[in-house]
Design a protein that fits this description.
Number of helices: 8
Strand content: 15-25%
Structural class: alpha+beta
Shape: globular
Radius of gyration: 19 Å
Largest sheet: 5 strands, mixed
Strand order of the largest sheet: 5-4-3-6-7
Order of helices and strands: HEEHHHHHEEEEHEH
Length: 292
């Protein structure tokens, strides 16, 4: 697998991270801290604000300490202060989030995309991965925040971000699942999903599952995974499904933010999923696994 594209395809990624994180924070500061996050069912609004804060603290620390290994990353994670508790927890987090984002942006600003740095994705150990990943994470959590607050219309997402987000979802977020397949597992392709964004290039996704019995305790496993269709694969050999819509609609759909489709600027959008009866259920199950 080749490394993911750098953040160069995105217009001013640092400004995007800054604006999206600030929007999340301002929305959540005015929302009931106990309000449930519809796109992250186990979270409250306060949990979401904490998550945005700790994510930026973590990646700022990874870059500042020049972490290169899993052990380095664990040390960086252990450096952050505990989550605030009590009646003023939200106010503390609003201030702390701003500092965390500023620290992350300062680290990213002084480092080129091709500088080596630890990431959780084995195929791309670079600063560019973090810069790109944080654009999409900040964007998705801003959507989460606005949905939590009950916004009638979501803030806009540019065509460039949406198109890049499709590639990132497939080439990174889905593909990373292959890093966790154990040596004793068997991988079996199940279906081909073709993404057809209006005015954009088609993306072919192989949906597969790995199965096996763990030697140490006999536990059985069966997990869905996905990745860009391998070059040597025969697309006609798999059950077929396709998803059609605007790049923005498919972006939100792939990242598990379908509730936002009814609240887009300019009106609601839909993703049309169709195909073989042996393929469509695998697509639905894959998306149900979620994407943080």
């Amino acid at each position: 697998m080749t490394p993911s594209p750098s953040s160069a395809a995105l217009p001013d990624p640092l400004a995007l991270i800054d604006a999206e994180a600030a929007r999340s924070s301002s929305v959540l500061a005015a929302t009931d801290p106990a309000a449930p996050v519809p796109t992250c069912p186990d979270w409250t609004a306060l949990d979401l604000l904490w998550h945005v804060t700790e994510v930026h603290e973590f990646w700022a620390s990874v870059l500042a300490t020049e972490a290169r290994t899993d052990e380095d990353a664990e040390k960086a994670d252990g450096m952050k202060d505990p989550r605030p508790e009590g009646e003023d927890a939200r106010e503390q987090l609003v201030d702390r989030r701003a500092r965390a984002t500023a620290s992350l942006l300062a680290q990213l600003e002084k480092r080129p995309d091709d500088q080596a740095a630890w990431t959780w994705f084995s195929a791309d150990q670079s600063v560019g991965f973090t810069r790109r990943m944080q654009v999409h994470e900040a964007t998705m959590h801003r959507v989460d925040a606005e949905l939590t607050a009950g916004a009638e219309t979501l803030s806009p997402i540019s065509e460039e971000v949406a198109a890049d987000g499709l590639d990132h979802a497939v080439a990174v977020m889905f593909a990373a699942g292959h890093d966790w397949i154990p040596e004793w597992a068997e991988l079996s392709p199940l279906a081909l999903l073709r993404l057809l964004p209006e005015g954009g290039e088609a993306l072919d996704v192989e949906i597969a599952h790995w199965t096996g019995t763990r030697p140490r305790d006999g536990q059985e496993f069966d997990h869905l995974v996905a990745r860009p269709l391998p070059e040597d694969a025969d697309p006609d050999a798999l059950p077929f499904a396709q998803a059609e819509g605007t790049a923005l609609a498919i972006y939100l759909w792939l990242w598990g933010r379908s509730p936002g489709l009814d609240r887009l600027p300019g009106g609601a959008r839909q993703v049309e999923l169709s195909g073989d009866e042996d393929a469509v259920p695998h697509v639905i199950d894959l998306l149900a696994q979620g994407m943080d």
